[in-house]
Write a structure and sequence with these properties.
mainly beta; 4-stranded antiparallel sheet; two-stranded antiparallel ribbon
Length: 67
């Protein structure tokens, strides 16, 4: 709790937590976009949080964290 994770991305991606606790890297329309190269999230609770790129993955697969 209280740790900040920073994602650095090159290309068209975003970061979405498996249980929708956070979604990062959206464009002006709220869709995944390529207008960012760094996003960060500070965790407010203790736990293990999987995440994926909505364009190139899904919960547990594709461009996602290993479980």
């Amino acid at each position: 709790m209280g740790d900040t994770v920073v994602w650095r991305i090159d290309g068209f991606h975003n970061v979405r937590e498996d249980n929708n606790k956070f979604r990062l890297g959206e464009n002006q329309n709220g869709d995944p976009g390529s207008t960012w190269d760094t996003v960060r999230y500070t965790f407010t609770e203790v736990g293990t949080f999987g995440y994926y790129c909505e364009i190139h993955g899904f919960v547990g697969g594709g461009m996602a964290t290993a479980r």
